[in-house]
Amino acid sequence: MSAGNTLPSIADVAALAGVSTGTVSNVLNRPHVVAAPTRERVDAAIASLGFVRNESARVLGSGSSRALGFVAMDVGNPFFTDIARAVQDVAEASGLVVLLADSRESVEQERANVELFAQQRVRGVVITPAGDVTGALEMLARTGIPAVLVDPAAGGADHCSVATDDLTGGRLAVRHLLDLGHRRVAFVGGPARLHQVADRFRGAAEEVADTAGAVLQRWDTDHLTIAAGRRAGADLLAKPIADRPTGIFAANDLLALGILHELLAAGCAVPGDVAVIGYDDIDLAATGLLPLSTVRQPRAEMGRQAAGLLLEEIGGDPRHRHRQLLFTPEVIVRASTTGTPATATMAPGGVTVAGPPGASGPVAGAGR
Predict the structure, then answer these.
(1) Could you tell me the pLDDT band of residue 77, with boundaries at 50, 70 and 90?
(2) Start and end of every HTH lacI-type domain (predicted)?
(3) Quick one: DSSP state of residue 270?
(4) Would you say domain 166-297 falls under CATH 1.10.275.10?
(5) Which of 50, 177, 248, 318 could, after both became Cys, cross-link 182 (CB 3.0–4.6 A)?
């Protein structure tokens, strides 16, 4: 090994192991073609020297890396990081790593992330779109990099995708509120450019339209965050009590958690005064002092399937066909809509939980 701070090279490994540089390269890239005793000597030399392969040089030589890209719409939302974790599990089993990029709900940042991954010649990309992803997909197509979308509509039939049936999910969420007797229902969500938000609202609107005496209000938000939920909650509380909704469907769990915070802080009984249901079923939904009813998306399975579709396309199997997988959502009922195991309000010192376990929520058909 050279003196100073120079990193050990393949030549250094070869010299220590007593083999050619070509043999070291085979151990790194095609270990199955190297006899076990030779491979063990090379591995020992690598460990002894602290050798780290120069991935950039390998990419220049082969035209691709050992990495997949994951473009998350918002890494602050556990829904997306849960999907990314599942993608990583599948990738690691195939000897690949996953590079994570955050779009911060920005189409421009999303395109910049995709461009960077294209420059790095990642093997493929999973994208959770922040909006119109057409330009990003065209860029990847020009470089021969396949993409899988976590979105029901963004790529159409030309790309593989995984998604939840958000139209049905929206209907299920509002049907749950209607079955509890709520007739003044609010949908809180945004930005409206997101297919998921639009579909959830459409499902909610269709369900309300099918119910006599029910009305649906809409509150648009600029983000899908707890902070945006708190702002929406404050706006809702500013309305006269007679005009407030008694049931709220938030487009995701983070919004719902922000709304819950504002309602409880204002002394509202949840669900006695207002019931709240979210969407996604992130871990935080079940672990608060007032567990959140929500619509569950199978996040881990969506991530595994997205990774599987991507690896299948990367493998170049001529039988591969683009598939659009649509998962069925389900309502998870918790205390924020039913009052079971307890109702809650926010006392000056924090949350006060009141009511015995098993206390009933709003009565169906009460015309609230």
Answers:
(1) very high
(2) 8-62
(3) B
(4) no
(5) 177
Query: Residue with structure tokens 């010649």?
Result: 121
Which residue matches tokens 């609230």? Answer: 368
Q: Rounded to whole angstroms, how far apart are CA atoms 48 and 44? A: 6
- Average predicted confidence (pLDDT) for the chain: 88
How far apart are alpha carbons 322 and 113 in whole angstroms? Answer: 23
**Structural contact between residues 142 and 306, judged by C-beta atoms closer than 8 angstroms:** no
Q: Tell me the CA distances in angstroms from 255 to 104, 215, 272, one per residue in order.
A: 16, 21, 20
Q: Is 168 helix (H, G, I), strand (E, B) or coil?
A: helix
Confirm if 98 and 42 have CB atoms less than 8 A apart. no
Residue 30 pLDDT greater than 80, yes or no:
yes
CATH number belonging to the domain at 10-62, selected among 1.20.1070, 1.10.3470, 1.10.10, 1.10.260:
1.10.260
Q: Give the H/E segment covering residue 354.
A: strand 350-354
According to DSSP H, which parts of 35-104 are helical? 36-49, 55-62, 78-93
